[in-house]
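#onboarding

Welcome to the new folks! Below is a worked example of what a typical request in this channel looks like: someone posts a single protein sequence, and someone else replies with the predicted structure as tokens. Don't worry about understanding the tokens yet, we'll cover that in week two.

Example request:
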Amino acid sequence: MTGKKKVFLDASIFVAAAGSASGGSSLILEVCRGLLFSAVTTRRILLEARRNIRKKLSSEAVLRFYKEIAKLNPEIIGPPAKESLSKYDDIISLKDRHVLSSALESKTAFLITLDRKHFQTETIRQANLSIIIMTPKEFLELVKKI
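Example response:
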């Protein structure tokens, strides 16, 4: 795995990939199974994704979710330390602090999310974080250039 750039995946990516086998989020999972990138997430994010898929999508989508996780075999990191969560109180909503904190603690190059409302804000841009936050479309455009 040396040389691979780590990509942190938010729950929204797993939900969208489960809902559409041919969409951008599914392509993200495919890219993270390749030679250049590897996926990182947390147990909490996977549980949140599973809960949302069960609530909003079909049983086929739940099955696709499990198959994608098995093929992806992401690095699953532990929960962020409580002290690190509070560092982000002023820049992101409380419900999303764990995602941002985990992504930063895991030293990933990218955080991929569909949650523009909370992750692509002026406050986050001004925070000068050590991670690039992108939508699947933005990330795939970057991958095309490589």
